[in-house]
Design goal:
The protein contains six helices and seven strands. The chain is α+β, with helices and mostly antiparallel strands. It has one domain: 3-Layer(aba) Sandwich (Aminopeptidase), CATH 3.40.630. The chain starts with 6 loop residues before the first strand and ends with a helix. The relative contact order is 0.16. Keywords: Acyltransferase, Repressor, Toxin-antitoxin system, Transferase. This is Acetyltransferase. GO terms for molecular function: acyltransferase activity, transferring groups other than amino-acyl groups.
C-alpha cells in the first residue's frame, strides 16, 4: 500500500469507486464534494492509493456560541460566537480501514487548521461524530465533547500547536 499525502480533491479524482460502508457519506462524496469544492463551500482533501481514494475529509468554517466552547474559553472571551474550522465527513474506504488512514487525515486537518489559526486567529477545530465509535476516535486525538451539541467534538488549537517556540 503506497499512499499519497493528503491533497485537494480535483475533477480528475474518481469518487465512484470509494466505499466507506456508510451510503450517506459515499453519496456525499460522489454527488456533492466536487460541487462544494467548486463553489468554495468546503474544501475536500483525499489520500490516494494509486488512483483510488483511500480516505477523505472536508474542511469548512463555522462558529459556535460561546457556551458550547470549553470552560477556559468562556471566562476569557466576549459573548460573540467563537470561530472554528469544521472537520466534516471524514471517511476511509473499507479496503483501507484500520491502517492509519483516518489518523493521517485528522493530522492533516489539524495542520491546516493550525495554519489558518496563525493567519486569522481561529481557536478551535470541530468535528461532528454521530456515532459512539466516531466520538472515541476523535477523543483519541484530543477532541472534547461540546456542551451544546452531543455530536460536536472540539479541539482547542492552542493544545494542538504545542508549546510556543
Amino acid at each position: 500500500m503506497s499512499l499519497t499525502k493528503p491533497s485537494a480533491l480535483t475533477e480528475n479524482h474518481d469518487t465512484v469507486a470509494f466505499g466507506c460502508g456508510d451510503p450517506a457519506v459515499d453519496s456525499w462524496l460522489r454527488h456533492h464534494a466536487k460541487d462544494h469544492q467548486q463553489e468554495r463551500i468546503t474544501n475536500t482533501f483525499v489520500i490516494l492509493d494509486g488512483s483510488t481514494i483511500a480516505g477523505f475529509y472536508c474542511l469548512a468554517t463555522g462558529a459556535i456560541e460561546r457556551v458550547s466552547t470549553p470552560s477556559r474559553w468562556r471566562s476569557r472571551r466576549p459573548a460573540d460566537p467563537v470561530p472554528l474550522m469544521l472537520l466534516g465527513r471524514l471517511a476511509v474506504d473499507v479496503r483501507h480501514q484500520g491502517r492509519g488512514v483516518g489518523a493521517r487525515l485528522v493530522r492533516d486537518a489539524t495542520m491546516r487548521a493550525l495554519t489558518v489559526r496563525r493567519m486569522v486567529g481561529t481557536p478551535l477545530l470541530g468535528a461532528h461524530a454521530v456515532a459512539p465509535a466516531g466520538q472515541a476516535f476523535y477523543r483519541h486525538f484530543g477532541f472534547r465533547p461540546s456542551a451544546v451539541d452531543p455530536w460536536l467534538t472540539l479541539l482547542p488549537l492552542q493544545n494542538a500547536a504545542g508549546p510556543p517556540a
